Amino acid sequence: MKKLLASLGLVLGVATVSQAAMAESAVDKVVSAGELRVCFEAGYMPFEMKNKNGEFVGFDIDMGKLMAKSMGVKFTPVNTAWDGIIPALLTDKCDIIMGGMTITAERNLKVNFADPYIVVGQSILMKPSLAGKITSYKDLNDPKYTVVTKLGTTGDAATKKYIGQSNIRLFDTEADGALEVVNGKADAFVYDLPFNAIYAAQNAGKVVHLDKPFTYEPLGWAIRKNDPDFLNFLNNFLRQTKGDGTYDRLYQKWFESDEWLKTVQ
User: Which PANTHER family match (predicted)?
Assistant: First the structure.
């Protein structure tokens, strides 16, 4: 009987722990607080930017607002420097990262990712004078070329891995890095395809875009570990928006149209 009671107590203890763990889900906290705090770094076109009125806009912003609406809470933007965005999540400064974050093994050791919501890759912006001379990232792997990218990003990692023989310079923002090429201070800029495509359109004649990605990079929403309820919610939310056409409408708005360009800073 004592063994039976002990076993029963153990089972009840496990159940209590499980219930407590479930109570800690970010989903419950978000609903209770009445707000979904979303971390991102403004400036990554067309995912998150500021418009001329100082409002945050972009694909991720719209998805975040839609997610908050589906939860019955308000959307609270948390603009955060990229090198501190995972620490901000882990210290409860926000509930989720929706900032065009590439899913990597290194990041996955610190956070959990929902299923990829879009796939991108690294492409190259280069000086017009190099058109025809440089046809692949491999051609830049030479000390005579100066290649720039954004610090702490997958562009940083890809440049060091695939173009490591070049003279690599790192910048705090993607805009500063790309401007080095426009100003003739660098030969090429390595960064995510969506940003480079838009930047090239805005700076026609000033840069040439090698638009074939040389990496495979799925982007995902990041949350704190040990939260299966939130992960389940996110994956089902993504399936629903893709299934009912909402995702496609937002994709067309931000990736297939350039109407929004005139509204941003």
Answer: GLUTAMINE-BINDING PERIPLASMIC PROTEIN, MEMBRANE-BOUND LYTIC MUREIN TRANSGLYCOSYLASE F
